[in-house]
Amino acid sequence: MSTVLQGLRRVVVLLLLPVVLLLLAPAAQALQWTAETLTVPADPSGTTVTFSESEIKAGRKVFNHSCGTCHAGGITKTNQNVGLDPATLALATPPRDSVNALVDYMKDPTSYDGETSIADLHPSLRSADVFVTMRNLTDEDLRRIAGYILVAPKVQGQQWGGGKIYF
Ligand code: HEC
After folding, report:
1. CA distances from 116 to 52, 66, 154 (A)
2. I want to staple 96 with a disulfide (CB 3.0 to 4.6 A). Which of 8, 67, 89, 125 is the partner?
3. Candidates 64, 75, 76, 127: which one to mutate for ligand 1, based on the most atoms within 8 Å of Cβ?
4. Is the CB of 128 inside a 6 Å radius of any atom of ligand 1?
């Protein structure tokens, strides 16, 4: 009898486990979308901006569509040295680790040393005739993409832009 009960208990535990995991997963996810992780530098002066969760999710969607082919996960497939991780963005000239600087890049991208315009090579509003995924992007879209690029490493840690390690 007790072995039957034990067997039953095991079945119940096995059945409940996925349910418990399903309940816990969103809770773990929700913890990461805090005011702290959603707050990022607005400009180089140190002013910050706090995004809403829905803005960042919208930004992720546009990012995946317009930038994902080259920058999925925050790396740069065609130039592993210039990723979208905070450290690399911070060391660019001018520093690109703020919303305004990233929006500026999407309008007028420059080489990592800031010396030359790469507007003809890198997708931007100026090259939307060649890079079709840049068409119809509003200033609000650009702001949300920038927000996603800066929030993602705060949520994902090293995995964002860690292509050099993870590939
Ligand atoms: C066709 C591939 C491709 C696509 C699509 C693309 N990029 Fe890039 N991106 C690159 C390459 C290559 C570089 C490195 C450029 C260089 O030589 O400095 C780069 C560099 C950057 C940098 C500078 C990173 C740093 O550390 O200074 C930013 C910011 C950036 N991209 C943002 C975007 C955004 C935002 C989008 C989408 C709107 C996008 N990119 C779409 C290829 C791409």
Report:
1. 35, 23, 30
2. 89
3. 76
4. no
